[in-house]
Amino acid sequence: MKRLASGTCTEGNNVFAVKLRQAKKEAIQRAMEQNRTVKVEKTTVESVSTQPPPSTTNEPQVKYEGPQDDHGIAEAPQMSQAPRSNVYAGLVSAKKKRKRAASDLETPASKMPEKVTPFRTNPDQQAKEKRPFAPAKKPAKAQRPRYESIVPIQARTSEHSSDWYQQVDMKQRYSRGDLENLKYLISVIRECEQKANVGEDVEASFAKLRQRIHQMEFYGFLSGILVKKSRLLEEEGLPAIFQSAKGVDYPWDLQADSLSLYRKWLVGVWDPFLLRGVETKQKTTASGKQLKTRNLERGYVGRISCNYVGEGNLQNGQWWPLQICAMRDGAHGEIEAGIHGQAGKGAFSIVLSSGGYSDIDEGATLKYCGTSGSEAKASAGTSLLKEALRLRNPVRVLRSSALPAKNKYRPSKGLRYDGLYNIVGFELLDEETAMHQFSLQRVAGQQPIRYKDAARRPTNVELAEYSKIRGLLGLGN
Fold it and tell me: What are phi and psi of 417, to 5 degrees?
């Protein structure tokens, strides 16, 4: 059958289109009965050939006699849109929520479950009898009070700050008296060299040198131009002490202190303030209660990371007034906790302090307890110590003045770094809390612990400076 004109079709194609539209209509009616939406896809029917598809059955072809358009094409029946589902079904209005909340508050007290409080005569005593190797677990902290005022406390006794030094300007003015004060150290070094060369006793000169280095830690007039003109960072200055140059066998504590001062000045840290980089604030609650807090200043350039194995640039006997100062200088990464480390790398450092743990301090050997776990699972701190043992990594050991007074290695104030220790084993003290006691051995070849005689830390100069700060902070003497 021939194509009549553009937009017309043959009789066989009319029958095919009628059947297709009838099938769509029946599908829509079934969807409406089931109350759901059926998406009807548009189907385009094209004429591929002028001949209709051959009939495979003996069934006679039916001619469509429904409505047609102007070109003789059958019109599709009108289809109604299926109703949409309600997307807001199940939601509760704010008004209903308020009514429900009000009804819950009006529940009679008789229907509320009674709170049963177990009888305890002395919970602290019972906990201590049950766990004599560790302190009782602290109760959950109460909600932090709202502070009415926060006032920074100024405890600085010098005019310098840790970030004033950017670049040495050799044209700036300086005091010649201050320069001569710094150069005096070089004259004492030469005095030691001369006495050593002729075989004279140099102990008096060593004592003079030791006292001067301790005082230089807290010089308030230091500046870049003074240090540079004094040549204390040159070979004839501090390096001559810690390198034992020109045949002088300087005491080991002098070498450590001179190296510590050299490294401090070399990186531009001229600030003599003990709490440099530490911000202290006094917070007052609505009830009038006052609380002092300390944090490291944001952006303090002198802060050193504590996340490393070994002692880094620390010196045996290095001392700090507060634990946060040890955190600032890269010795211990916790303000209060006694174990610092990273998961997968083990513990990096520990602090020997009080707290009720069954620690045993014999100087070169230690028995150090981890922290209490729960349900026979080790705590995070205990796991770090076990990981350090597995990796055979040494840990930095700091001793605190909070140790018992009978401990002869205890510093008189603050905290002191006492070298590296290897973890050699552990013992399980309690299965329920997974309390472990670790055995540590001081690494051989290190300088002695600085707890006595002329090498003792903190020095008298450090204690005097700390006494000034404690008074300004209201901590007593």
Answer: -85, 125
